[in-house]
Amino acid sequence: MFDLKLIRDDPDAFDRGLARRGLPPHTPExxxxxxxxxxxxxxxxxxxxxxxxxxxxxxxxxSKGGDATEKKREAAQSKDDGTRLEAEATRLKTEIDALxxxxxxxxxxxxxxxxxxxxxxxxxxxxxxxxxxxxxxxxVALGEGLREMDFARAGKLSGARFVVLSGGLARLExxxxxxxxxxHTREFGYTExxxxxxxxxxxxxxxxxxxxxxxxxxxxxxGLWLIPTAEVPLTNLVxxxxxxEAALPLRFTAWTPCFRSEAGxxxxxxxxxxxxxxxxxxxxxxxxxxxxxxxxxxxxxxxxEEVLKRLxxxxxxxxxxxxxxxxxxxxxxxxxxxxxxxxxxxEISSCSQCGEYQARRMNARFRPKESKGNRFxxxxxxxxxxxxxxxxxxxxxxxxxxxxIVIPPVLRPFMGGAxxxxxxx
Length: 425
Description:
The chain is of the alpha+beta class.
């Protein structure tokens, strides 16, 4: 959502931001509705004032024994007209809010222009992809070789884009999540949360999933939505609240299943675990002071990167162009891990700062120490990391010629001290 006053004051700047998103101008429609809304409000207030004055006059006339019929008629008419105008103002404001709710956030000035992933910019790269002395297998071949990754049985249970992990791989996935949570809570100061996995309409609206991206979500018969990411409940923890400035920043992390319909992903990554309807992810969310949001963004990205460094996985950080960012973001870094079987880097985390876009939708504010009035917080979110994709990266980057997997040292305490997963168990 956006500040209407800022749109009124500089409509050209707003439309320029939309143009960078590849969208047409919206301010003519917004400002026309805004003008009609304010005119209806003003007239309704004038009629309310007239009615109050008329009621006083009626009282005086009646007290003196006079005939107040005409004044009563005028007061009644002003009430009817006022009720109609108030209803019109409410309708117009609802239309404005609905229009603004469907518009994505505006990119920051340092976000590069561009239409898609081909226009993203490399920020930095860490580690060197391993040079194998044998033809590396993909994670599907490795998992099935271990007899612990089963897509056929998952298909029997649930259909396409699901997997059953068992034995050592199930434990390795759990170890990855536990390692990430311990790192983020013990070293980086995040508070671990175990949130609900089902949320209301207003919760999904608050972070921008509704109304525009309803097709990407799963909805229950009771009207609740399965979360597509823990960003949704974690960010909404402060919905409707006024926080003390001294409490900022708030930093939350959670390990949850995530559910996505992948409505627009037909034919993409159909093999393996890259793109599934259900997957596990460790999420990072920050509720920050506006002046500290840029620094918090860099910090969050560094926290996510540290996971990959400690797992000895090569990766790179990309600054997304304006046309490739998510709707709620105004600046995003994608962290991409090296996937040997694809000979490519693949996204494993997106770290975004959203400004006050989500805070306005949630009405989440803070009380400044040195000034009057409340301000909207700034929200940030990022994966720390997507657990399934991290599992893929560990399997493929740390595979041996015999199909065994060397377990990174940082994960071994979570694996009962095991150093290798072997096809023979």
